[in-house]
């Protein structure tokens, strides 16, 4: 029976350990991709420009391979599901793991286990996956596959007999990996005769077809013409195509059967309506319950977005751009806000800082929208004196007078680094209100440090600091860990005595004054000189905690153009105008985007 010969798996790896290279090799070996295509386009699975530039995988895709086991001559269907590797995309990783039975755990044999490796293993184990360890890059002179394997046995408890030593780059160990998949990844369960239950593990927007949902059929089957509904919202659609990824998208005339992985399109207009984690079933003979694990997307980081073009058009155009944007990225949320200092804009919710950067860049590239983003912040839970509880995502909305308690989101952070950097890392976390949970020695010279700390301390510049302090040898990962009450206050920043709402931030009382001072100092360095004196203040309530000022130009810039050489005068004015680009006029003061960025840097 066909179902018995299907193997669904994914590849888990820390950034740069060789996931894409291995995927390419598997596709090439099973002839799923023609050699010439592969030669022209290395690294097939990451298909967005931006991803390639940043060297990260954001959106998961899938590939179906036909594989004949050379030992028995038996034919198998191998479905590879690509997973996003970054911490920002944790929920998407976990959904794609729910769609498979096995995982190749790729570890660079010259680097060993990294923080993401452990986070990935946790997820794989939670999903009950069979894990096949792949020690990659054995061609490198510094590779120590035996030692790294021992580490994996000690730290993760994997079964060493399943491990494969490989070089994705040179094509070593690829056949062995394919055989391991056939032998150890279980075939999918489920019943073809049961009502349809299909898990949406990814969806994306296609300009020609609308939303394409990537599905794993868990029970039943689905074909073109079926009337289906999404179980989270009961919206109904008629399937207009189903098909496979070869890895190109190929439509099929038959049904996608139980255990199969493929795509489905049904004239869904927005990816939010075919959300990752949702279950599809047929309208007739519906499944009685949805597959477990559907979670409505909840942004964890918020920031305000303002068009740099502050005419009425700028705002209207941005609204149109954001609406279009969310057709293809439902994890971005936005609602209009008005800031007395910055004008009309939107309060946006993101999956994390990386997501925020990507949104800003895509708005610029794909929609030509130059936007300014305020400093990001986490979502606070506030209990009022009257006993109500609500979530607040904009620091300016926190009214200290009516508040009994502010709670902040906490996170568990996992850091792996050479022991030589232990002191530098301890120094880093000390200033971040952290508590140590555990310290482990991984092998002769590497340590694993586990901490609990407020999420707000991580979304600032924590990751880049971990890298800087370990000269790039450290890695980190984190997961959310509930809410906790804390003594938090709002720090306001005022320019020329009026408060700039986009600059307000929430801080622990013990750090508020020093961070307020540091920020005022940084703004002093960043804000250009004006024709008048610029006064910067940091305040907690009515109390001024820091005060800086920027002296005006001593003379008019054009004053030194004695004699009135007009071309020189024009040159100077032009230079001034160019310097104003990407500035936002706040009251009478021009602020560069950098000023907003600097708010989150805490060191
Ligand atoms: P992300 O997509 O950023 O998560 O990275 P990845 O895990 O997909 O890694 P990728 O396949 O892009 O490989 C990272 C780098 O390692 C590339 O420069 C590859 O050429 C190189 N690489 C991959 N496999 C091997 C290998 O077996 N040996 C050697 N020497 N280099 C390899």
Automatic annotation (TrEMBL):
Alphabetized CDD domains for the sequence: EF4_II, LepA, lepA_C
State the membrane topology: Peripheral membrane protein
Where in the cell is the protein located? Answer: Mitochondrion inner membrane
Query: Which protein are we looking at?
Result: Translation factor GUF1 homolog, mitochondrial
Q: Which reaction does it catalyse?
A: GTP + H2O = GDP + phosphate + H(+)
Using the UniProt record, give the first listed, main subcellular location: mitochondrion
Keywords attached to this entry? Elongation factor, GTP-binding, Hydrolase, Membrane, Mitochondrion, Mitochondrion inner membrane, Nucleotide-binding, Protein biosynthesis
Tell me the organism. Porphyridium purpureum
Identify the Pfam families for this entry: EFG_C, GTP_EFTU, GTP_EFTU_D2, LepA_C
Enzyme category, top tier: hydrolase
Q: Cellular component per GO?
A: mitochondrial inner membrane; mitochondrial matrix
**Tr-type G domain boundaries:** 4-189
Please give the function described in this protein's UniProt entry. Answer: Promotes mitochondrial protein synthesis. May act as a fidelity factor of the translation reaction, by catalyzing a one-codon backward translocation of tRNAs on improperly translocated ribosomes. Binds to mitochondrial ribosomes in a GTP-dependent manner.
Question: Does the keyword Cytoplasm feature in the UniProt annotation?
Answer: no
Q: Locate the residues binding GTP.
A: 13-20, 82-86, 136-139
Q: What is its EC number?
A: 3.6.5.n1
Name the family the entry cites.
Answer: Belongs to the GTP-binding elongation factor family. LepA subfamily.
Q: Which BP terms in the Gene Ontology apply to this protein?
A: positive regulation of translation
